[in-house]
Every structure is written in C-alpha cells, then in structure tokens.
Amino acid sequence: xxxxxxxxxxxxxxxxxxxxxxxxxxxxSDMAYIFQDDLQITGELSAIVITCTAWLLEIYQQRAGSxxxxxxxxxxxxxxxxxxxxxxxxxxxxxxxxxxxxxxxxAASKSVPxxxxxxxxxxxxxxxxxxxxxxxxxxxxxxxxxxxxxEMNPRPSLLSxxxxxxxxxxxxxxxxxxxxxxxxxxxxEHLSREFKRDFExxxxxxxxxxxxxxxxxxxxxxxxxxxxxxxxxxxxLSRFYKQFxxxxxxxxxxxxxxxxxxxx
Length: 264
Fold this sequence. Notes:
alpha+beta, 33% helix, two-stranded antiparallel ribbon, Jelly Rolls, 9 helices
C-alpha cells in the first residue's frame, strides 16, 4: 500500500456525513490523471455517476463498511481489495454505508480494449498498488477476477436505449429532446417518463450532466476554463459556469485549483 501523506491536497465534507481527502494527484506522460484519496462516510450515501468520453478506474482498499452498486439488485465485490471500472457513457449508482477506505483512481480518454467498454464493472484484484499509466490499467482490467456488471439499469427499455444513444452521439451540439422524441416516433412527455423510469433522471437532466462530465478531468490537466467550456459544447461561458455549478456544487475555477495535477 502506498504511504499516506500527512497533508492532503484538499478535503471535502460529504453530504450526510463523511469526508473525502485527496492525498496526491499527478498527470503522467500518457495523459492519465492519477490520484489517491482517503474516504470516510458515516451512515448511507448513494450517488449517480455519469461518464462522458473519459473512463475512470477506481481501486479500493476497504477497511470498514460496505460498498455496493444498484444494478437491478445490489452488487458488490467479493473481497475488500477491488476495482471499479466506469467506461465512457456509462451510468452507475454506487452506495456507501459506514465506509472507511483508501482508493486510487485513474482517469483518461486514451482508448482501452473494446471488451472493457461495454458495461461498468466491479472486480476483485490481488494487490493494492498504484498504476503507472494506461497500459497498467489495461493489465489490471485483464487480470481482474469475479467481474460483475454494475450498470444502474441492466434492462432499460428499447426507447430509453435509443434516446440515450442519440444524446451520447450528439451532446456537443445540445440536441433538442423534443426533436429526439419526434425522431423516435413518440411524444416528448412519453420519452421523458420512460427515460426517468429507467435512469432516475429526465433526458434533459442526463444531457446537462453528460456535457460537464469530462470538464473536471480537463481542468485537472491544466486546460483553461474557456477552452474546456468550448470542448464540452458550450459557446456561452456563463451557461457553462451555471451548469457546472449545478452539477458539481462548485465552480470551474475552484475545481481547477484543487484538482490541478503535476505532470511527471
């Protein structure tokens, strides 16, 4: 296990009790963002995690409590040392109960083999160690044991699948949900009800969250805020600020300051 620093880059008070302390972060030569966190949660906390074009690998060394994923039923790893892989354009719902854990995360946009991007996964790993970059992430994915799919809804309706795919393919141009509904041959209201039933959010809300999902990683890599705004499809900087704050509860400037990585 990597040595834990006495000083943290930042510490965040979590809703409903608990803290997340970032112990280190770096940007390696293949443009992967690597970080280490200490996580402590009192009580129960769940959240919906949405990824855009970047993927995320989290490696947990769990000391107390339980971590599961709601995927039609509760799914969890079989050991206290496990990995969670969130591929691009995935929706998951992790649930933490009285958790104490150390975790290592790696986020990047560099491609991984296609067989790992079909669905988010939780899997057991033999050792807790920090990957040095994307190539080692791929080796960890290949060597994982007892892999289980953890998409939030493993059986959404065909209408929701088709709508989500159209949003994923066109999010940069801010597609009209009404036009997507027309293209799919249904009323806007029907599409919204079906999508919300399957993914616990309206298609409009999913689109807003998807558009800012990659922004924190880009800010961590040192990109300027106005450039990130354009990269994720916003021509209006004030609108980007507004929707970024609504999604992350902080501003792009604060996010850039606390996540900024050092390149090695």
